[in-house]
Design a protein that fits this description.
This protein is α+β, with helices and mostly antiparallel strands. Helices cover about 35% and strands about 20% of the residues.
Length: about 425
Amino acid sequence: MNPRKPIYAMMVVGAAVILTLTFAPYALMKDARRAAAAYIQIPLKRAAPPVPASAVPAPPAPQVSAFDVAGWYTGRGDDPARHALLVQSLDGRATLAEYNADGAFNPASLVKLTTSLTALHKLGKDFRFETKFYIDGDVDKSGVLRGRLVVAGGDPTFGDFHATLVAKKLAERGVKKFEGELIVTPDFVFNFTDKPEESAQRLAKVLKVNPKTFSVVDAPAGEPTFAVLSYPLHDILLYMNAHSSNFVAQRLGALVGGPDGVRQFLIDEVKLPPEQVQLSTTSGLEVNRMTPRGLVAVIRALDDETHRQGLELADIMAVASDDYGTLRRRMVGTPLEGAVVAKTGTLVHDDGGMASLGGVVYTQKYGKVYFVVFNQGSAVAESRQLTDQLLAEITLSQDIPVPIPKPEKPRHQLESTDLEVLE
């Protein structure tokens, strides 16, 4: 046995220990850097170049909410495919909820919002229909008018209040009785009756006159004896939207080009894709097609148009739970009470039934939040309840509703004091 072998072995072991201690820190540091690089996902060899002070930062990416709309409906035993919605902030940068937002559904009476936008833009908030009265004949000493009384006009809101003004103007001219021919134009309506002959008879009854004959002819030429002006357009729009009046929407829509004219306006002015707008009426009756995204764009444009003309959305749309109409009992006792200005849409038969809602929620963080909700199916009452609940949960998950100032009593619509007479 070589007596030096143990010494050599100890020398080898010592050298190995020295080498290990010498290079171990470098190996550990390299592993640590690799781990850190993998964690923060940036390269170690080259740092990112500094951003020039003059560079303009890119706009923030749109925020999309993680609110699970499909899961919300599924959890209630409902088929999500029957629903579509979009809930967005005022500037469109934040989406609080979205589902089937580009799917085409029948919006029902939300079509009236497109009619409102087109009419307000083309006619202006102070536009008034004019119903002209022509007196053709003489009034004898006993106050009997013998001759013709011609009524020309297409005011869709013409009714009892207007007739009271007419009776007053006839009395000022000494007319106590009328024995002659009462003539109305084909577009004349009275108390939402679209048959001119029946409208003429109703007018005669309110005026307490008994014409010998009734006729329907075109308006005569020349200046009228006097004219009754309708309510201003913004009041008519509030009534139409609050009560979802198909009659008013059809008549008003006809004045701005009918369904084709409204559709073209949406394409030209709101920049909606033509394939996403199908309108067969300006009221929402029958079969129409729009998307939640398209209608949110309409509501945003309507908000802009009202402001341009010195109005608020609440001047032409109902406040939920506050105003008379289809929203009178909606959202009462919920966090959204008084904080929603909206329009309802209801169909019972077409497309299997529809229950829609669109408008704005006033909130603390985002200010205005635009929304449109479509529900397809015959369970209209249930769909309305679900819509109110869902909208509240979406809003509260990301913001706080803020009720707008509430009037002391519900607003009365189409007041007689808003009518005017031209002589």
